[in-house]
Structure formats: structure tokens, C-alpha cells
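3.2 Worked example (two chains)
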Amino acid sequence: MDTIPPDTPLPTEAVRLLEALLRNDDPTHRALLAQLPHLRVTGRCACPCASIDFTPDRAAVAAPGAGNPVAEALIVDADGEPVGGALVFTQDGYLSALEVHTWQDEPITRLPSPERLRQG
């Protein structure tokens, strides 16, 4: 994934992935989805993976109570085989990180498309 400068809006592909991970009727997830337009990048994982750290404008949105991870899914390859996972984390009820991990030797360096997620 290309370098994302700190203190910039969350990239579109990250927003799409978070929407897919948080899309259900859970009231906590609906409240977290409302934070998406207010997220700003705060950092990246030190390894070459596609994980991103972020924070919302806390004055603009409410913070629901939430445990961690608040959402997770498998990431599958083009053949539908699981190759890793995606997890969404909060801090104090605010969205804080999207972790993308692999079970392969090579890290997942680009955010997967929502079509590659399988809820488990």
C-alpha cells in the first residue's frame, strides 16, 4: 500500500473495507459507522502490511461502548481460500485501527477489497 501521510483523511479503500466489516444491525456498529467521515490517519504499522491507525474528531461523533476487536473477518484469495484476516479496533469507544494480517510468508501490503471478506 502506498504511504499514507499522517493527519490526512482515511483513504477511500479503507473506508469501504471498514463499511463492509461494520455493516450489520448491531447498534454499536451503526454508531461506529457514523465515525467514518471524521477519521484521520495517525500512523501505520512498522512492517509492510496494510494496517492503518486512525482517530476521529471526537467532538463531531459519539463513542459507543465497545469491546475489541469490534469486527473481524477472514480475507480470502481469488480461489476463496482464507489467506489472513481483518480486524477493527476501538479505543475509548472510538475507531482506532484496522489490522490486516496474513497466514502466508508475505504480508498483505494492500487493503483487500470488501468482496474478499468472509464473516466468520
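3.2.1 Second chain
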Amino acid sequence: MIRDVQQINSPEVINGLKELAPALIVSIRFGGILKEKVINIPTKGIINLHSGILPKYKGVMATFWAMKNNDNKIGTTLHTIDDGSIDTEKIIKTSTALVNRDKSYLWHVLELYKQGATDISGY
């Protein structure tokens, strides 16, 4: 089941998640910070596909910052969410790609998520 949720830590969402009793929650491009009540619900945990190479590029728009800093390589990091911190948990896999200066930022982000989706499916 896929749900688009904006207020992940709200009592309504927490109750809904408890009713679903998910084994695993996958977070992709979600701007909220998950709190303990949500983190403790899925039996196999929560994984996040981050659009940057951790630990160098934490937080939002990591691909943008890597390109702005003229890095030759960008990537995604699949990692666990074990607490309320941001992009600091156990890294499962990092996938990288070379920057193509003839292509846009959006093109790069979309290209990265192709491999990121494969990384998730292999988890």
C-alpha cells in the first residue's frame, strides 16, 4: 500500500499505521522528521532513500549541493531510520553516478532515482 502523508507524526497517521501494522516503511523524498512513535511501528524498520552521498551531503537538496560544489560524482544513499536524527543512521547502500555537465539538475535527480529504486527492491 502506498500513502502520501504530510503530517507523519500526527495521532491520526500514527493510529492508521498501527492498524496497517506494516513490516517495513520506505521513505523517499519526504521532508518530515519521523519521531519515535512512528519509528517503532514497523517490525522490520524504516528505510530512506536519500538523494545524496552520506555522510558528506546530509539534509535537503544534496544532489544540488554536490553539483554546486563541482563534485564529479553524485549519488543516493539507502539508509535506516532508527531515531529522529537526520541522515545519520546505518547506511545500507550508496549508489553513485558521474555528473554530466551538459544535463540539468532535474535530469540528474531523476537518473539517480532509477538506481535508488533498484537498491530498495534489493533490500
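3.3 Remarks
The helical segments are 11-20, 36-39, 62-68, 105-121.
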